[in-house]
Amino acid sequence: MEIRPILSALLRSKTGAILVALQVAISLAILSNALHIVNVRQAVAARPSGIADEANVVHIKVRHLVEGSHQEQLARQQAETRALRAIGGVLSTAFANQAPMSQSGWTTGLTTSRTAGNDSSPTSMYYSGDSLVKTWGLTLVEGRDLAPADVVEIDGKTSPDDLFPRSVVITRALAGKLWPGASQAVGKTLYFGNGDDANAATVVGVVDTLQSQNAEVATRGGFALIAPIRQSFASIMYTVRTEPGQLERVMKEAEAALRANSGGRAIIKMKTVAEDRKERYRADLALSWMLIAVSVLLLLITASGIVGMASLWVTQRRKQIGVRRALGARRIDILRYFITENFMITSVGVLCGVLASVALNQLLVSQLDMARLPIAYLVVGAGVFWALGVAAVAGPAYRAASISPATATRSA
User: Fold this and answer.
1) Which of 6, 74, 149, 404 shows the smallest number of beta carbons within 10 Å?
2) Ramachandran area for residue 245 (φ above 0: left; ψ -120 to 50: alpha; else beta)
3) What pLDDT shows up at residue 127?
4) What pLDDT score was predicted for residue 330?
5) How large is the average pLDDT for residues 254-259?
6) Which residues 6+ apart lie within 8 Å of 209 measured at CB?
7) What DSSP element (H or E) covers 323?
8) Rg of the chain over CA atoms, in angstroms?
9) Where are the alpha helices (H) located in 60-185, listed in sequence order?
10) Residue 265 to residue 220: CA distance in whole angstroms
11) What does the pLDDT look like over 153-197, one tens digit per residue?
């Protein structure tokens, strides 16, 4: 088929063709970037927290209405820990000051020397007198876990500032931040803050991943450390890992055991890791679904625009189509004419849309620190709109090919 007659027809009726091409370009620019954002957000929401068996871990917060002395509180913690471990189906339990993805907790500044101005990125500080590595199933990639001999008992009200743990476990991401390029972090010294009075600690182990309480996107493996501290609090939290399928039963029995141990003078709240993950990434998933809905609507609107414009052209060209049919044009020739015409318009729109996609992504990168748009999204997007253009024009083109030569030549 010759392209010249199609170009000639389009030049005589430029407005419709320009509008369709513009609609395709805008839709492609938005669609490609929207789907890229969806993919990034869903990948973020699926990031591992570091906890090996999230579906079977629950955090239990206990607020005692009667505080007691430092020693009484520590004894109460030990009694409650024993009660939790005695429940059937409990694999491990530990005191913890905070939980990954909980969106509230403690952070600290770290340095590699006491020199001022050497702060690292904010680091999530977990501490426990028990093994969080064991209870959470963290992957130890270097060194050892914290041992009972490393634990420091601290009274949050009266302990001196220099009473501080001398051993810590950190994440691989934090090790790379503090000592970039170093082959190992075990044995190195870090400082809590800077200055002459900064507390020093030695890294004894490195875990692969442990997200912070806020699960920041910028730190893939999380900037976090675990310190061996047993501290007396009226409000404490236990983290419990159960056997698969036993979580709900264990939660009920744990509440009963803790209430019995406290004599009913405690407020108990429970939250699973799955609930923490859902709440932490609620906004990311909501944005993903919103963008998916917008993308579907864009495709429907673009397809409707192509169908409407093609139907209008068929109506306007009924006499021309009838003449061509009378001169011997086959139905397949009419069908191919309209499909080729729409393909040419869509191709112009796709080319402009690719350029607009790159420009829009560059704006997002510069203003919102987004990742650059992979070329695969442009290739797939172009293919989608080419296929959409052909599919959308198929109906009007088929109706055009079905026009009777006699009927068309009698019409005004």
Assistant:
1) 149
2) left
3) 92
4) 80
5) 94
6) 48, 49, 50, 138, 139, 171, 172, 173, 221, 222
7) helix 318-326
8) 33
9) 70-85, 132-136, 172-178
10) 41
11) 888 666 656 678 899 999 999 999 999 988 899 999 999 877 777
Task: Tokens for 228, please give them.
Answer: 């061996």
User: Which two three-digit tokens encode residue 219?
Assistant: 């730190």
- Give exposure, 379-411, as e/b (b: 16+ Cβ within 10 Å): eebbebbbebbbebbbebbebbbebebeebeee
Report which of 89, 15, 19 is spatially closest to residue 250, judged by C-alpha positions: 89
**Cα 317 to Cα 297: distance, rounded to the nearest angstrom:** 30
Closest CA to 348 of 31, 123, 20: 20
CA gap 303, 388 in Å, rounded: 7
pLDDT digits (tens, 9 = 90+) for 12-52: 677 778 888 899 999 999 999 999 999 988 988 999 999 99
Q: What is the pTM of this model?
A: 0.79
Query: How many other CB atoms are found less than 10 A from the CB of residue 219?
Result: 21
Work out whether the CA dihedral 332, 336, 337, 338 comes out positive or negative.
positive
Looking at the chain, the number of H-run helices and the number of E-run strands are 12, 14
Assess whether pLDDT exceeds 60 at residue 412.
no
Which structure tokens are listed for 359? 């420009």
Q: Which residue has the tokens 């500080």?
A: 125
Q: Residue 362 pairs with which residues in a beta bridge?
A: none
Q: How many residues does the chain have?
A: 412
Sign of CA dihedral 5, 353, 287, 47: positive
